[in-house]
Amino acid sequence: MNNFIKRTISAVGFAAVMLAALLTNKFVFGGVMLFALVVMMWEFLKMTCGTNYKYSQILSILAGATLFTLVFLYKAFDFPGRLTVLAFIPVFILMINSLYLKDKSRFDKFANLYTALLYIAVPWSVLSFAAFSPEGVFSGKLLLCFFCIIWGSDVGAYLFGITLGQKYGKKLFPSISPKKSWIGFWGGMLTSIIVSVALYYLGFFPVAAKTQTFDLIHCIAIAILLDIAGVYGDLIESQWKRHYGVKDSGSIIPGHGGLLDRFDSALIAIPIGIIYLVACDAMCL
User: Fold this and answer.
1) Which of 22, 34, 203, 238 is the most exposed place for a label (fewest CB within 10 A)?
2) pLDDT at site 135
3) What per-residue confidence (pLDDT) applies to 166?
4) Per-residue pLDDT, 281
5) Which residues of the chain fall below pLDDT 70?
6) Contact 62, 91 (CB under 8 A)
7) pLDDT at 215
């Protein structure tokens, strides 16, 4: 019961912070998402590099934070887009720093410093493209819809998987995540579609390009894409954790693990959702 209460309080607190970030103003959004980026990169590097190359880990996180900040400034304050190339400066410093390392016995771990940038910083920086209109007006409704669909999929997959998937049907990816089942996968997809349709009828999906609202077909297509991409995102992080023998990426959310555990699906799913909307010309970035 104590563990249940702890998990419930943590979940409510986490949801409150996310709602504040997505529904208040751009300053709260930028601050919360930048904090999340730094924590996720720190969790990943702690898992993969341990105590090796601490100074280089700081440089990697600094590079990721710089990229997110520059993209945020570009979308929120009409900061010159060409200046986002400044994010390469800490990356170059990171590269040069590798030449001066005294202990290179575990130099293979150094590659994870670059992986953290590609795996976490780049997709997380894309969030600003969904949070701001072409005129720089902040609205987190689209991102809120994305997160609701992703987390709805997770809940559906868990409920269907724990009740039916462990007894019937085949496992989804037993070599990486033994508990995931195909029944859980289809249950997650069904739930994501239900959440998306509910958000559509409740009017949460924002107005798209050419003053037309998202139609129902777009919402269902987005739900399916986010569900599939989210499953892959979950499996990708599971593979990292399995390789390094850890259960959770961190412990910042009591009873739920780290922020990387909470956003692993979103790192793949949200960029895919934005790409879909751009391809369909449903949203003008």
Assistant:
1) 203
2) 82
3) 74
4) 67
5) 1-2, 207-213, 281-285
6) no
7) 82
Cα separations in angstroms, 18 against 25, 31, 63, 74, 110: 12, 11, 24, 22, 32
pTM over 0.85: yes
- pLDDT of 261: 93
Please identify which residue in the block is written with the tokens 């930028």: 30
pLDDT value for 285? 45
* Contact criterion met (CB below 8 Å) for 251 and 28: no
**Measured distance CA(58)–CA(109) in Å, rounded:** 15
Q: What's the one-letter identity of residue 41?
A: M
Cα–Cα distance for residue pair 197/55, rounded to 1 Å: 47
Identify the burial level of 130 via C-beta atoms within 10 angstroms of its C-beta, where 0-12 means exposed, 13-18 middle and 19 or more buried: buried
Neighbouring C-alpha atoms within 13 Å toward the C-beta of 263: 29
DSSP string, the chain: -HHHHHHHHHHHHHHHHHHHHHHS-HHHHHHHHHHHHHHHHHHHHHHHHTTTTHHHHHHHHHHHHHHHHHHHHHHHH---GGGGGGGHHHHHHHHHHHHT-S--TTGGGGHHHHHHIIIIIHHHHTHHHHHB-TT--B--HHHHHHHHHHHHHHHHHHHHIIIIITTSS-EEETTTEEEEEHHHHHHHHHHHHHHHHHHHHTT-SPB-GGGPBPPHHHHHHHHHHHHHHHHHHHHHHHHHHHHHT-S-S--SBTTTB-HHHHHHHHHHHHHHHHHHHHHHTSS--
**C-alpha Rg value of the chain to the nearest Å:** 20
Q: What's the CA gap between 239 and 241, in Å, rounded?
A: 5
CB contact burial 233-267 (16+ within 10 A = b; e otherwise): bbbebbebbeeeebeebbebbeebbbbbbbbbbbb
| 234's tokens | 């979950």
Tokens of 117: 């940038």
